[in-house]
């Protein structure tokens, strides 16, 4: 297990800062043998904010006793695998030690702990005992006096918070390791292949022509530092794509920060993005870091960038060009190193023409453009996405399930205005309503969808009044066959009868249009 790497996870770095700031205490890691990582380097022990702990750790005997206290906590965790919550233990100086066990793939791998705080303000007598114990370890009278002057005291509420934070830190590491294992199982990051074609990039699923193009582009883009503009309707996967670019690129170990620019009014957005100085407006009681600083060394995903006011557009342009910005009320520019990925459902080019979006900013963010087509324009992805969401949301212990052919046909005929998000929600809902059914029937599909797809209203077969006749005929033929295959559950004999052509002619046309992927097996052919 890579304790060193865990210490550098973004969440753990933040956790360490919070613990130092709120409780003047230090976060440590012990391994599965109860050895404390920071204490194994001989005299080279990192400074801890608690002066008593620092004095103790810098003496040989003190370090031995500290290790002993930690081992006692370790023994408790090791002896009881069911103990998964944080636990408190007194140390040799009568301070408290709180630790949360770390389980990776259900194996005990050590624990995160914080030491060196008192549960109540000490009495005069307790302070004398503490000073005497410290002096036993070597420090002189004045050092011991100074050390006990500012002792962190944590009441029940503080302790509960600290315990929660440690458990949270442990669960983040568990999740990180689970994701790592999942990726290793899946092979190298990026593209996954099946039947000679790419069908996923990280968590992005798609087999249609437009998605194949996007996957190719993402592979190139991920390795660069270029600014990316993602265009697409709501729910088409813009954030998913931004995350995939981040986690495949050179900044994958840095933070990934998201802000939706339409979520706040101008003032709040400015303060959220760039931070503010104390007193810069009513209610600004303290200096506050902005998200650009939080995203330093990582990636900042700015969603709905088209909703930014002209004043903020100027500030964004400056960060992109110079890497600097001024917090609200600040006079000193701050420097950051952030890769920006912007997204919008609007046509920024048109907005530039109308004078609503700065042209210079448009060219600065539009270095690489990824256009995510709406789901209705890539219906070939539907069976694969349905399958993906059924797996993703099926609860543990449940059988893997599928859709009845009627249910699939209904979904294939719907226009999906909410795109993949709407489809995902519908699949989650179906799984809940379907109970233990093996095949989820069309009757369980939301009435919103069923009502929109009335019989005869085949939304896929959009009428075409312009263009070449043979192209229109081919599109119609392809759509009718595709929809028929979904509706009949790939029963080619039945579909051939319905279409009034021979089975072999149908098979030729299916091959011509590449419609044979992602369908259930043809029961007749198998027989
Ligand atoms: N191609 C895809 N494969 C798998 N899941 C997808 C795909 N596209 C979108 N999703 C899922 O759909 C949901 C919506 O995606 P996401 O939030 O990335 O969309 P968005 O375009 O950023 O939406 P909005 O503009 O409303 O914020 C997420 O749960 C995401 O995982």
Automatic annotation (TrEMBL):
**Which Pfam families has this protein been placed in?**
AAA_lid_14, HTH_8, PocR, Sigma54_activat
- Keyword ATP-binding included in the entry's annotation: yes
SMART domains referenced in this protein's UniProt entry, alphabetically? AAA
Q: Which domain of life is it from?
A: Bacteria
Query: Where would you find the membrane-spanning parts of this chain?
Result: none
Specify the Sigma-54 factor interaction domain's residue ranges.
Answer: 204-432
- Entry's PROSITE patterns? SIGMA54_INTERACT_1 (PS00675), SIGMA54_INTERACT_2 (PS00676), SIGMA54_INTERACT_3 (PS00688), SIGMA54_INTERACT_4 (PS50045)
What's in the keyword line of the UniProt record?
A: ATP-binding, DNA-binding, Nucleotide-binding, Transcription, Transcription regulation
- Asked whether the UniProt record includes DNA-binding among its keywords, one would answer yes
What name goes with this protein? Sigma 54-interacting transcriptional regulator
Q: Which organism is it from?
A: Archangium lansingense
């Amino acid at each position: 297990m890579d304790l060193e790497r865990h210490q550098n996870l973004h969440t753990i770095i933040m956790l360490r800062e919070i613990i130092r700031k709120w409780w003047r205490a230090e976060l440590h890691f012990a391994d599965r043998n109860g050895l404390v990582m920071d204490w194994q380097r001989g005299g080279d022990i990192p400074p801890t904010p608690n002066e008593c702990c620092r004095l103790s750790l810098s003496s040989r005997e003190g370090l031995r006793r500290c290790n002993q206290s930690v081992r006692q906590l370790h023994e408790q965790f090791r002896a009881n695998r069911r103990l998964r919550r944080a636990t408190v233990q007194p140390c040799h100086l009568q301070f408290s030690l709180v630790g949360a066990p770390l389980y990776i793939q259900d194996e005990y791998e050590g624990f995160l702990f914080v030491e060196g705080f008192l549960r109540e303000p000490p009495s005069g007598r307790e302070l004398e005992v503490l000073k005497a114990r410290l002096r036993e370890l070597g420090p002189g009278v004045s050092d011991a006096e100074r050390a006990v002057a500012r002792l962190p005291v944590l009441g029940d509420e503080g302790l509960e918070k600290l315990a929660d934070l440690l458990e949270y830190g442990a669960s983040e590491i568990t999740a990180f390791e689970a994701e790592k294992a999942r990726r290793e199982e899946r092979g190298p990051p990026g593209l996954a292949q099946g039947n000679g074609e790419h069908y996923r990039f990280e968590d992005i699923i798609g087999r249609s022509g437009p998605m194949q193009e996007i996957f190719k582009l993402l592979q190139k883009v991920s390795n660069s530092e270029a600014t990316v503009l993602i265009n697409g309707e709501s729910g088409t996967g813009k954030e998913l794509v931004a995350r995939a670019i981040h986690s495949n690129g050179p900044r994958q170990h840095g933070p990934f920060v998201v802000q939706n620019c339409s979520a706040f009014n101008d003032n709040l957005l400015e303060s959220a993005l760039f931070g503010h100085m104390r007193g810069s407006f009513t209610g600004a009681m303290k200096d506050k870091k902005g998200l650009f600083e939080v995203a330093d060394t990582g990636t900042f995903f700015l969603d709905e960038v088209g909703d930014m006011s002209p004043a903020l557009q100027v500030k964004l342009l400056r960060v992109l060009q110079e890497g600097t910005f001024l917090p609200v009320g600040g006079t000193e520019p701050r420097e950051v190193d952030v890769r920006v990925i912007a997204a919008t459902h609007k046509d920024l080019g048109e907005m530039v023409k109308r004078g609503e979006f700065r042209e210079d900013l448009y060219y600065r963010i539009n270095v690489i453009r990824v256009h995510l087509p709406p789901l209705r324009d890539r219906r070939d992805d539907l069976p694969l996405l349905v399958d993906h969401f059924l797996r993703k949301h099926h609860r543990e212990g449940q059988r893997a399930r599928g859709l009845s052919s009627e249910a699939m046909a209904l979904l294939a005929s719907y226009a999906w205005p909410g795109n993949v998000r709407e489809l995902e929600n519908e699949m989650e809902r179906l799984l809940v309503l379907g109970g233990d059914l093996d095949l989820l029937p069309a009757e369980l599909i939301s009435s919103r969808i069923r009502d929109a797809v009335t019989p005869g209203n085949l939304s896929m077969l959009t009428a075409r009044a312009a263009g070449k006749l043979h192209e229109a005929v081919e599109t119609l033929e392809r759509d009718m066959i595709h929809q028929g295959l979904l509706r009949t559950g790939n029963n080619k004999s039945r579909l051939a009868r319905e279409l009034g052509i021979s089975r072999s002619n149908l098979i030729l046309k299916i091959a011509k249009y590449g419609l044979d992927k992602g369908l259930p097996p043809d029961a007749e052919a198998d027989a």
